[in-house]
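REVIEWER CHECKLIST
Item 1: Sequence provided? yes
Item 2: Single chain? yes
Item 3: Sequence as submitted:
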Amino acid sequence: MCQSIGKHRNGLRRFRCPKCRRSYTEPHRRTLDTMYVSQDRAVLALQLLLEGNSIRSTQRITGLDQNTIMRLLVKAGERCQALMDSRMRNLHMQHIQLDEIWTYVQKKRAQVRAGDSPEIGDQWVYVAIDADTKLIPAFHVGKRHIEDTQTFLWDLYSRIEGRTQITTDGLHHYTVSVPDTFGVDVDFAQLVKLFGNFGQDSPEARYSPGRITEVLSKVRSGDPDPEHISTSFVERQNLTMRMAIRRFTRLTNAFSKKLLNLKMAVALHFAYYNFCRVHSSLRVTPAMEAGLTDHVWSIAELLGAA
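Item 4: Structure as written out by the authors:
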């Protein structure tokens, strides 16, 4: 009979054969491809990242190496991205809100120099949310250019069936791109907010958004319901992102160093938000409200579903 010789650093038991003297680890299924991290520690690390902890904070709590946590984030993000691509299809949504949230990779736009990689500098996360179920059907990380706007809209269009109402912010790229993408199957309006400024040299001018002085509702195509011309839910989702994804926190050094890491962190966040996180107003997850699943998923189930 094989003898137990303790545990591996990943928590799995080790055995040695008394005849051939070879040692081995108890049978197990690796959580994420070739990574040797135990499932419990992997889930704990991801849970900490999803609740707004930084990489170094997660390292101190879990004892995992910083590079291991980064690889864990990337692999989990890849699985979550595949899950979103496969599950977010043939959706019936009546009221969709679109917005973008700003972040950056390595350095802000003012510090970007000629010859720097195009991945460096300002990045924008395009987000779509269903106002009724709070489901996030599509997102896109890129520049705030017409090409990225169109890529995001075509991805959203491929996931939706039937006619829908879309409300966006005042980004001028939407004005033409939404009707071009959705054709006659959309009732489209834009909510344009005009801002005033604080005193130019005051602390409020540096750290606070401008005061909203006027809100203009503009119908662009179709016949949108005035009561549902709103971007409140998607703007609240932007706050959720800033609170739950450490690299989105302003005025810190927790920004993204690589574009890939940013994309995977966003994919992990939205998959967790859709399938695992109970929405406070719905009392269920958005995926349950939308009829995509019948229970709250665990992180382990989320990683194994893709």
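Item 5: Key structural point noted by reviewer: DSSP finds ten helices and nine strands in the chain.
Item 6: Recommendation: ____
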